[in-house]
Amino acid sequence: MTHAATVRPWLEEHGWHPGRDVRDRVGEHVAFRLRDAERQGFPLTPSAAALGFLYSYGLLRLPYRAASEIALVVRPDVGYEGDAEDFAELGANLRRPVFPVGYETSELGIVLVDDLGRLFYQHCTGPYFLGHDAYEAFARRLSGSTLRDAEDFHA
Contact 111/72 with Cβ under 8 angstroms? Predict the structure, then answer.
């Protein structure tokens, strides 16, 4: 079974559809994140991959089946003081820019996308790799797969 066969019905159940584009509604959230990162002293630049993710999935609340009270909320403007430094460190280790695209409601871990479209998870215990693309990341979270340490992807 492909990731799409597992993930697409779940996405559609929660408001996503092919061709969905919320760039006009998500722009203010991106602008807020950019201002906040600048204020923290660690400016961010959203890649085309991160913006594409936000335009397609932005503003959705995507609950995981195994624990429906836990969800991915696709909004880049939720974070914590000092998070921009954590993102800069992850980006430096990957040698790729990363940009926050959402958070998980369970522990407010931040989901980030790099310029290759890979997804990472910044948790209080450190950064983790979610998937090479959105569908792989969604499938891993839906299945409850163990997260891989982001160190495995350092340049």
Answer: yes
Flag whether 98 is in a domain.
yes
Within a domain: residue 135?
Answer: no
pLDDT in tens, 46-66: 999 999 999 999 999 999 876
Domain limits for position 29: 3-124
Contact 118, 128 (CB under 8 A): no
Please report, as a single letter, which amino acid is at residue 43.
Answer: P
Domains contained in the chain, number: 1
Average pLDDT over residues 18-30: 97
**Nearest alpha-carbon partner for 3 in 130, 94, 155, 154:** 130
Establish if 132 belongs to a structural domain.
no
Going by C-beta distance under 8 Å and a sequence separation of 6 or more, which residues neighbour residue 29?
54, 58, 59, 75, 76, 77
68 within a domain of the structure (yes/no) = yes
Residue in 81, 111, 85, 82 with CA at minimum distance from that of residue 99: 111
pTM beyond 0.90: the answer is: yes
What b/e sequence results for 34-51 when a residue is b if at least 16 CB atoms lie within 10 Å of its CB, and e otherwise?
A: bebbeebebebebbebbb
